[in-house]
Write a structure and sequence with these properties.
This protein is mostly helical. It has three domains: about 200 residues, Up-down Bundle (Growth Hormone, Chain: A), CATH 1.20.1250.20; about 55 residues; about 200 residues, Up-down Bundle (Growth Hormone, Chain: A), CATH 1.20.1250. The protein is about 80% helix and about 0% strand. Helix 1 runs antiparallel to helix 2, helix 6 runs antiparallel to helix 14 and helix 14 runs parallel beside helix 16.
Amino acid sequence: MTTDRTRWYALYVLCAASLMIVLDATIVNVALPSIRQDLHFTASSLAWVVNAYLLTYGGFLLLGGRLGDLLGHRNLFLGGIVLFTLASLACGLATTQGFLIAARAVQGLGGATASAVSLSLMMNLFTSVGDRAKAMGVFGFVAAGGGSIGVLLGGILTDVLNWHWIFLVNVPIGVVVCVVSWTLLPATRPASATGRRIDVAGAVTVTAALMLAVYAIVNGNKDGWTSAQTLGLLGGAVALLGAFLVIESRVAAPLVPLRLFRLRNVATANVVGVLWAAAMFAWFFLSALYLQLVLHYSPLKVGLSFLPGNLIMGVFALGLSAKIVMKFGLRAPIGIGLGLAAVGLLLFVRAPVDGSFVVDVLPSMVLLGLGAGLAFNPVLLAAMNDVDQSESGLASGVVNTSFMMGGALGLAVLASVAASRTHSLERSGEGRLAALTGGYHVSFFLGAIFAVLAAALGTTLLRTRGFQPHGEPAAADAA
């Protein structure tokens, strides 16, 4: 029997696993120059150290979520963490380019498998609205702040030790998570999953569609957005997605029941997640580039610059966000949080070439930390609130996929816009730093627009039925 204390210990284990996986999407960025020099990567091939992880992580989220529903969430979670830990060890021991890229791809597969079911495990552990909101606050802080923490940790490990340790640090954490998870996480197999077959055709088509789309996105800047390769890959992804929809409408046991997207909160929360992820990637990656390339911050100093936002995000996500959700519902925190994020991005639009941290960086970091801490919890709650428990793994896979795809697409588009504006300014006679800053300004403005659109959709389309503020449990939860 799961006690109240055991449930919270289990949540902390899930958060440790989630943090480890989220960190690996960003911790490598600070170490890329060292990896390039050590393993003799070229400028173009170095991108695959990041892209290999992104491709497999995005491509297998939906399949991982459904497998968790059919085969057991704990089993899939443990399998994903074991695979991720072994791949991290391989990355840390890599001495050749091909070995490191292959290990990163396996890392993405393990991370996708564990991430797709971690939200489901949490939702099953916490069934009342109050506890679920508090647990989501903890989980949301880890998911929202992990990327920024990755930059800081990557800078420290690379400066103090070497780049191998950004991967090796996962090994002891992964071992502890596996051992403790076996004890704390409930081993349940949904009754509805017994005897059902896996939708192989649906799994193959949707996974291939996602991987083609991500591949086209991450290589769009290099190959050209109107090139035959980029358009062909995107066309192939659309064709595969169409085939997937046809398959799901006809098979008896679909991988993704299309009726799921007829739930307003699920559909709205996923659209909000796509737009918000695009805005947050504008903050995280473009502001890091501004600090490093324009203000000439060291990698470690870049990571330290994100600390104020991380600390504020932690305070709100761990405590205040859950209380605000219980008092005011889902719409207000989403609208206010994303509105603050938009203002933070707009402040970056005026950041000058010779900017100072206190005047030109810190205010934006504070506002973005507040916005992320407020909004992440209710966005996830809205996505999961309308879903039946038997399909919680699928829903969490959809949510994670939406965030990843929104972030990847948003980053690719914003980086392309920034590069185009920079080149235009350079041709008109602007200096290199002024041109870079001008390019970032345009992308920060577009990111603010994404945040405003997400806030508008969240506050107008989300329904609060089934989620009662003021601490009153919903009818389903009370039952």
